[in-house]
Amino acid sequence: MNRKLLFAVGVLGLLSACVAPQTMYDWGQYEQTLFVHYHEPALKKEALADYIAFVEQGGRPDHPLAPGLYAEAGTFLLEEGDLSGAMRFYQMEYDAWPESRPMLGTLIENLEARIDE
């Protein structure tokens, strides 16, 4: 009987180790996108398109997007020269995370000035 109990506990331990931990926020494929963005130039456009589509979905009320993901999408678009797209995502970050308003407010003002030139 002791062996059966030990075996059952071992199997449960192995199975629980296979379950990914649930985080407070939805990160999607953020880490993979960053890796591709900086290390796989041939795949960059496709990875960024997938990332932008993911961020536009906006997560769920019980599992929102992680702080900074909207702003990161905006920065990716800014690097591509899409000022209005960048501003849209910066505004989404500004609206979603009040803590980011001082920095994002400045970014948005600077982009508005660049667009108006």
Overview of this structure, please?
By secondary structure, the protein is mainly alpha-helical. The chain has one domain: Serine Threonine Protein Phosphatase 5, Tetratricopeptide repeat, CATH 1.25.40. It is 69% helix and 3% strand. The chain is built from six helices and two strands. The protein has a two-stranded antiparallel sheet with strand order 1-2. Helix 3 runs antiparallel to helix 4 (69-79) and helix 4 runs antiparallel to helix 5. The longest helix is centred in the N-terminal third of the chain and has 16 residues, at 2-17. It is flat and about 75 Å long. The mean pLDDT is 85. Pfam families: DUF4810 (PF16068). InterPro entries: UCP020555_TPR-like. This is DUF4810 domain-containing protein.
Topology:
Layout: H1 2-17, H2 30-39, H3 44-57, E1 59-60, E2 63-64, H4 69-79, H5 83-96, H6 101-116
Antiparallel strand pairs: 1-2
Organism: Marinimicrobium koreense
Protein name: DUF4810 domain-containing protein
Keywords: Signal
In short:
With 117 residues, the protein is mainly α. It is 69% helix and 3% strand. The chain has a single domain (23-116), classed as Alpha Horseshoe (Serine Threonine Protein Phosphatase 5, Tetratricopeptide repeat).
Give the total of beta strands.
2
| Top CATH class | Mainly Alpha
Radius of gyration equals 20 Å
Largest sheet, described in full?
A: 2 strands, antiparallel
Whole-number mean pLDDT: 85
The percent range for strand residues is: under 5%
Query: Portion of residues in helices?
Result: 55-70%
Distance between the ends: 80 Å
